[in-house]
Amino acid sequence: MADRTSQDDALMRALYDEHAGPLLAFVLRLVGGDRHRAEDVVQETLLRAWRNAEQLQRATGSVRPWLVTVARRIVIDGHRSRRARPQEVDAAPLETIPAADEIDRALRLMTISEAMADLTDAHREALVETYFKGRTVNEAAEVLRVPPGTVRSRVFYALRSMKLSLEEKGVTA
Protein backbone atom coordinates (compact mmCIF):
# COMPACT_ATOMS: atom_id res chain seq x y z
CA MET A 1 0.00 0.00 0.00
CA ALA A 2 2.85 2.37 0.87
CA ASP A 3 4.36 1.59 -2.53
CA ARG A 4 1.12 2.59 -4.27
CA THR A 5 0.94 5.84 -2.29
CA SER A 6 4.48 6.77 -3.30
CA GLN A 7 3.63 5.95 -6.94
CA ASP A 8 0.54 8.20 -6.74
CA ASP A 9 2.63 10.98 -5.20
CA ALA A 10 5.26 10.62 -7.92
CA LEU A 11 2.56 10.68 -10.59
CA MET A 12 1.01 13.82 -9.11
CA ARG A 13 4.37 15.58 -8.91
CA ALA A 14 5.10 14.64 -12.50
CA LEU A 15 1.64 15.78 -13.67
CA TYR A 16 1.98 19.06 -11.83
CA ASP A 17 5.52 19.74 -13.05
CA GLU A 18 4.71 18.88 -16.66
CA HIS A 19 1.12 20.09 -17.09
CA ALA A 20 0.15 22.68 -14.43
CA GLY A 21 1.67 25.68 -16.25
CA PRO A 22 0.18 25.00 -19.70
CA LEU A 23 -3.12 23.92 -18.10
CA LEU A 24 -3.30 27.18 -16.12
CA ALA A 25 -2.67 29.21 -19.29
CA PHE A 26 -5.44 27.28 -21.09
CA VAL A 27 -7.93 27.69 -18.24
CA LEU A 28 -7.12 31.40 -17.84
CA ARG A 29 -8.36 31.94 -21.41
CA LEU A 30 -11.52 29.96 -20.65
CA VAL A 31 -12.39 31.94 -17.52
CA GLY A 32 -11.63 35.36 -18.97
CA GLY A 33 -8.42 35.96 -17.04
CA ASP A 34 -9.82 35.29 -13.55
CA ARG A 35 -6.64 33.88 -12.01
CA HIS A 36 -8.27 32.66 -8.77
CA ARG A 37 -10.93 30.77 -10.65
CA ALA A 38 -8.36 29.36 -13.06
CA GLU A 39 -6.19 28.13 -10.19
CA ASP A 40 -9.23 26.49 -8.60
CA VAL A 41 -10.03 24.73 -11.87
CA VAL A 42 -6.43 23.50 -12.28
CA GLN A 43 -6.43 22.26 -8.69
CA GLU A 44 -9.72 20.42 -9.21
CA THR A 45 -8.41 18.95 -12.48
CA LEU A 46 -5.26 17.63 -10.81
CA LEU A 47 -7.35 16.28 -7.91
CA ARG A 48 -9.47 14.34 -10.39
CA ALA A 49 -6.29 13.10 -12.04
CA TRP A 50 -5.09 11.86 -8.66
CA ARG A 51 -8.42 10.09 -8.09
CA ASN A 52 -7.98 8.38 -11.46
CA ALA A 53 -4.25 7.69 -11.00
CA GLU A 54 -4.52 4.00 -11.92
CA GLN A 55 -6.34 4.78 -15.14
CA LEU A 56 -3.81 7.48 -16.06
CA GLN A 57 -0.83 5.23 -15.36
CA ARG A 58 -2.21 2.62 -17.76
CA ALA A 59 -2.86 5.20 -20.49
CA THR A 60 -0.50 5.37 -23.41
CA GLY A 61 0.66 8.68 -24.74
CA SER A 62 0.21 12.10 -23.16
CA VAL A 63 -2.39 12.71 -20.46
CA ARG A 64 -2.64 16.37 -21.39
CA PRO A 65 -5.71 15.89 -23.65
CA TRP A 66 -7.46 14.17 -20.73
CA LEU A 67 -6.50 17.02 -18.35
CA VAL A 68 -7.63 19.68 -20.85
CA THR A 69 -10.97 17.91 -21.35
CA VAL A 70 -11.53 17.63 -17.59
CA ALA A 71 -10.59 21.29 -17.03
CA ARG A 72 -12.90 22.44 -19.83
CA ARG A 73 -15.78 20.42 -18.35
CA ILE A 74 -15.15 21.90 -14.90
CA VAL A 75 -15.30 25.42 -16.38
CA ILE A 76 -18.50 24.60 -18.29
CA ASP A 77 -20.10 23.05 -15.20
CA GLY A 78 -19.18 26.13 -13.15
CA HIS A 79 -20.64 28.43 -15.79
CA ARG A 80 -23.86 26.43 -15.94
CA SER A 81 -24.25 26.33 -12.17
CA ARG A 82 -23.77 30.11 -11.91
CA ARG A 83 -26.42 30.64 -14.59
CA ALA A 84 -28.80 28.14 -12.98
CA ARG A 85 -28.96 29.90 -9.64
CA PRO A 86 -28.87 33.58 -8.82
CA GLN A 87 -25.54 35.12 -8.01
CA GLU A 88 -24.91 35.23 -4.31
CA VAL A 89 -24.54 38.69 -2.88
CA ASP A 90 -22.47 39.56 0.13
CA ALA A 91 -24.80 40.89 2.84
CA ALA A 92 -22.10 42.99 4.48
CA PRO A 93 -22.81 46.19 2.47
CA LEU A 94 -26.50 45.91 3.31
CA GLU A 95 -25.72 45.84 7.02
CA THR A 96 -24.14 49.30 6.78
CA ILE A 97 -27.21 50.89 5.20
CA PRO A 98 -29.54 52.24 7.86
CA ALA A 99 -33.01 50.85 7.38
CA ALA A 100 -35.99 51.81 9.45
CA ASP A 101 -37.60 48.93 11.24
CA GLU A 102 -41.21 49.20 10.10
CA ILE A 103 -42.59 47.22 13.03
CA ASP A 104 -40.93 49.48 15.60
CA ARG A 105 -42.08 52.54 13.69
CA ALA A 106 -45.68 51.27 13.55
CA LEU A 107 -45.66 50.47 17.28
CA ARG A 108 -44.27 53.94 18.09
CA LEU A 109 -46.95 55.59 15.96
CA MET A 110 -49.68 53.53 17.64
CA THR A 111 -48.38 54.47 21.09
CA ILE A 112 -48.17 58.15 20.17
CA SER A 113 -51.68 58.02 18.69
CA GLU A 114 -52.99 56.51 21.92
CA ALA A 115 -51.24 59.21 23.95
CA MET A 116 -52.68 61.90 21.65
CA ALA A 117 -56.15 60.43 22.13
CA ASP A 118 -55.75 60.90 25.91
CA LEU A 119 -55.35 64.69 25.45
CA THR A 120 -58.18 67.18 25.59
CA ASP A 121 -59.40 68.51 22.26
CA ALA A 122 -57.84 71.94 22.92
CA HIS A 123 -54.43 70.50 23.80
CA ARG A 124 -54.50 68.10 20.83
CA GLU A 125 -55.40 70.93 18.41
CA ALA A 126 -52.54 73.09 19.71
CA LEU A 127 -50.03 70.23 19.23
CA VAL A 128 -51.32 69.37 15.77
CA GLU A 129 -51.07 72.97 14.60
CA THR A 130 -47.59 73.60 15.99
CA TYR A 131 -45.78 70.25 15.80
CA PHE A 132 -47.48 68.34 13.02
CA LYS A 133 -48.43 71.21 10.71
CA GLY A 134 -45.28 73.18 11.54
CA ARG A 135 -47.00 76.46 12.30
CA THR A 136 -45.55 79.10 14.58
CA VAL A 137 -47.35 79.94 17.82
CA ASN A 138 -48.78 83.10 16.22
CA GLU A 139 -49.99 81.21 13.12
CA ALA A 140 -51.56 78.50 15.29
CA ALA A 141 -53.21 81.20 17.42
CA GLU A 142 -54.81 82.68 14.31
CA VAL A 143 -56.08 79.30 13.09
CA LEU A 144 -57.41 78.32 16.54
CA ARG A 145 -58.77 81.83 17.22
CA VAL A 146 -57.09 82.07 20.63
CA PRO A 147 -54.31 84.31 21.97
CA PRO A 148 -50.69 83.20 21.37
CA GLY A 149 -50.14 82.82 25.15
CA THR A 150 -52.99 80.30 25.25
CA VAL A 151 -51.41 78.29 22.42
CA ARG A 152 -48.05 78.24 24.29
CA SER A 153 -49.78 77.15 27.48
CA ARG A 154 -51.80 74.41 25.74
CA VAL A 155 -48.67 73.10 23.97
CA PHE A 156 -46.75 73.07 27.27
CA TYR A 157 -49.46 71.12 29.11
CA ALA A 158 -50.10 68.83 26.13
CA LEU A 159 -46.42 67.89 25.94
CA ARG A 160 -46.28 67.29 29.68
CA SER A 161 -49.38 65.11 29.48
CA MET A 162 -47.95 63.21 26.47
CA LYS A 163 -44.69 62.62 28.35
CA LEU A 164 -46.54 61.16 31.34
CA SER A 165 -48.77 59.04 29.13
CA LEU A 166 -45.80 57.65 27.18
CA GLU A 167 -43.89 56.91 30.40
CA GLU A 168 -46.91 54.96 31.67
CA LYS A 169 -46.87 52.95 28.43
CA GLY A 170 -43.17 52.17 28.90
CA VAL A 171 -41.85 54.47 26.17
CA THR A 172 -38.74 56.42 27.12
CA ALA A 173 -37.17 59.29 25.23
Automatic annotation (TrEMBL):
Residue stretches spanning the membrane: none
Query: What family classification does the UniProt entry report for this protein?
Result: Belongs to the sigma-70 factor family. ECF subfamily.
What GO biological process term is on the record, naming one? DNA-templated transcription initiation
Q: Which PROSITE patterns match?
A: SIGMA70_ECF (PS01063)
In its UniProt record, a GO molecular function of this protein is: DNA binding
Q: What is this protein called?
A: RNA polymerase sigma factor
Q: Which key words tag this protein in UniProt?
A: DNA-binding, Sigma factor, Transcription, Transcription regulation
**Domain (RNA polymerase sigma-70 region) ranges:** 15-84, 115-163
Annotated Gene3D superfamilies = 1.10.1740.10, Winged helix-like DNA-binding domain superfamily/Winged helix DNA-binding domain
What InterPro entries does the annotation carry? RNA_pol_sigma-70-like, RNA_pol_sigma-70_dom, RNA_pol_sigma70_ECF_CS, RNA_pol_sigma70_r2, RNA_pol_sigma70_r4, RNA_pol_sigma_r2, RNA_pol_sigma_r3/r4-like, WH-like_DNA-bd_sf
Source organism, top-level taxon: Bacteria
What organism does the UniProt record list as the source? Streptomyces chumphonensis
